[in-house]
User: Fold these one by one.
Assistant:
Number 1:
Amino acid sequence: MKDPDSTLHPLAADLNAKLGPVAEFLSATGKRMYFPYGGILGQGAEAKECALNATIGMAFEDDNTALVMDSFKKAINLDKKAYLYAGSFGLQNLREVWKGLQMQKNPSMAKVQYSLPIVTSALTHGLRVCAELFADPEDELVIPDLSWDNYELIFRDAVGCKIRKFNTFMRTGKFDAESLKTALQSKGDKKVLILNFPNNPTGYTPTEEDAKNIVAAVKTAVRKNKKVVVVLDDAYFGLVYEPGVHKESLFADFCKADDRIIAVKLDGTTKEDYAWGLRIGFASFGGKLFTEPEQFKAIEAKAAGNVRSSISNCSSLGQHIALNAYLDPQYQKQKDKKFAVLKRRYDMVRKIFKEHPEYTKVAFRPMPFNSGYFMCVKPIAVDPEAVRKLLIRKYSTGVIVLSGLVRISFSTVPTGKLRKLFDNLYRAICELQTA
């Protein structure tokens, strides 16, 4: 019988061997992936310290600094290194600084071993990297019924993975961990589970009790001999507005949960640091099966190989901007100030609902929300899409319809205009109810 590894590139086979049992979680594409240490990149790395280096496709001035036109340089005041390639792994300093920030924000992560983050072109690209590394057509992506539609576009439509949804909320408003557990135990050996908190579209983060139930549900499923890749979509991390809500990522919990679980943490500057256009994200990998440093280096190389094979490398300019921001002594103070803006808007939404009980009795049912950029409502007895169109046509108000709900981004609406927004929503629904 032909050895299945005989058709692999030797570098891919070597990485699979270094990963050991972790390799069994990879998709066929993931097993074929490698970082091209040889070739142009490898040869360039070997010549890095040479006095005369004619290896890489960039241009330098006579003083060995980047050759950059003033029309570009004047746009932003950064060292000219920002115009050079950042490499497929990302800037080393940025990766190390981000890992340090992760552990500051998530003390539990300091107690587990996990990879150095790989830089991705924001979180969406990180999801695509995960899909290609871990999901085969016969595998299932498990997601809540209230989730971002891009998950299906990436995993089902682009990669060909099956989709299985579970119920997000119980009638009590608690996260439906039992529904999650049932979905994970469906037919099939391997599942890719995405957990997104604060959730898009609902703006929900688990309570401490819910968080424990979620981890327990996954651990119960893997005891049935399932392999589960748990992807933590932490795009809106840190934006929690209520006490009693779980404030850390669940990444560390899954890193130490079971040797049939691989955990992937996706995060970045986009939502968390209010820097949407930089397109800088990170992918970190962990799990009990990672027991040797070379395993982490191998999975980093797989991810970087995926980056290399698709976009070559992420924006060096964006990475340098992010790194400078994180090293700025005013960074946290500025971030806290921006958080306070969103918290005021969240508080205003709560206040509006309290002052206008007719909204939630007559027009719509709010979904549980306590964090993030959004909150959602379910219109009573009318089509959400009809509501959206009427709001645009008659009330000059824009909302999103997602997962059968009306999603409201209070993050984009000035605090003083939120009352008008919800009054318009109420009027539009009532108008459709009586039409």
Number 2:
Amino acid sequence: MAIDYAQMTVSEAAGAIASGDLKPSTLVDACLERSRSQEPAVRAWAYLSDDQALMAARLLDSKNVSADPSAPLHGIPFGIKDIIDTCDMPTEHGTPMYNQNRPARDAACVALLREAGGVLMGKTVTTELAHFHPGKTRNPHALTHTPGGSSSGSAAAVAACMVPFALGTQTTGSVLRPASYCGVYGFKPSYGDVSRSGVFECAASFDTLGWFTRSVEDIFIIRRALIHAPASTFVPADLSQLRIGVFRGPEWSKADPQTRESMESAIAELKPLVASVQDIEPPDGFDDIAHCHKMIAGYEFARAISWERTQRQHQLSPKLLLGRCEDGLQCSYDEYVHAQATLAEQRRLIAMTMQQQDLLLTPVAPGEAWEGLAATGDPVFNTAWTSLHLPALSIPAFKGPAGLPVGLQLVGGFRRDEQLLAAAECVQQALGIGNVRAVN
């Protein structure tokens, strides 16, 4: 039986390339072929660079990757959200006002991944300026359902096995929610962990680069490349030593009954296997986080897009202008400063909680992907963790009533990203969750 290289994870493909069993050009060609077959239905790509990617891969075919530990992604294809600059492809930010926009340089994250040997295949669809107005992408699991947003194309491309991994960004829930809806692994690192140089700014207080993969180990590999750290072996945590906090929180009732039931079942399954499972009560003032996020994100977004808002208003959607933009213009500087101070206190309080826990378990989204393509879903279970600057991971743990994916969210302590990933690996193994393969 022929090997379907497009379904390989980053780790599997890197191992096959290092051993000489797989050429980078063979892997890239398989992913391009997969993209050509799936793209008419899924519509994940804003720009796909077939010839350019294949040429880059062929140049890597003759290099001895086993003698170059600085290239852990040698020959591995990837996609990036179309708000991330590239010097050799358009960066259009999900809006016609940037049609054929050509930046002069690669964003830092792209340069780092290329330095690590990665092969950029193209730009994935984003919502308008990474906001709420949807793009053309459909959910690979059900084409009439949203893939989530704003990193819709990246999540869908990984789920459809067009690329082993893809970059997205998160200002509220734009990585974790699409990961949940599309049934892949999605990771938002600690705020400031990865450089955002060359990434379109939405709200500087929250904007975070994230990525989608088909395994937890792949998240670890990509993170090491993005922080320019030496490649190292991924070692899962000791499940028996884990301290797990269960965070239902004030929005628990907004989760669908089946999501709540699935999460309770997972907790019951883990309880006899770990050191402790403890219900975590929200810190005093936790209910204010969503309002503070709205104020700060609106204030910063309305000012970050001042040129677009004042000079190209006719090319922006009412959803953008009357939503976060309007919120931001109505927010005063004093209100903005007060909201920042409130979140700073909440970060202090949650840090105290996380001293006693290795991770928190909480929903990623209320349930499976919404039917229809006019909206990207509700970020209600993502806002707090983005606002608190904590690393968070969505693992494809459950199914909803229609059989569509539903993620389980794991939240770690600030700057404890690798510890979170090590814990996530043993948790997903204990729950019987494996690597993601093709949807169809």
Number 3:
Amino acid sequence: MANIVVYDINKNQVSERELAEGVFNDDVRGYLIHDMVRYQLAARRQGTSSTKTRSEVRGGGKKPYKQKGTGNARQGCIRAPHYVGGGAAFGPRPRDYQFKLNRKVKKAALRSALSVRFKEEKLTVLSAFDLEKISTKGVVEVLNRFDISKALVVVSDANHNLELSARNLPNVKVLRAEGVNVYDVMKYPNLIVTEGAVSQLEGALAS
């Protein structure tokens, strides 16, 4: 049974909630987390690195000197790779680094990542994370009450005050439930989730 205490932003216990076993207390499969992180990082790569080959470098269309009789090695073009200013041999070319992962694998990886945080007792559930005004100091004060300095905060809906308040904090990231991903869950050692977001995650990831 996966039970967790629900707090308000003042760290007062509000209630206790039962978490879905298959989402927050699933078997942790490290290889799936690894594959998913690789998948996300590969998708971020632009793949635009490029060098010119000998056929693309400007000039060099004329044979530099006659084939025989000069005492030099035979050359057909001054834009060959061994010449200064010549084309690159086996240089990088534009490419797509993305690869495919099945939808079931992606969901299982996210369930494993969430389960890691729950089993490490690094998961905090709040009834809500509502601020009266835009205040970076207000976010820091809430985190300090829970002895947290670096965290991923997951909310159910748009939270204008919270999103603007946290954007100047380098160690805090705010995501809506539909944007939760394995890379960010593993990057931040603490996970703060509102009750509404917990329900959304359970609905989306239930097997």
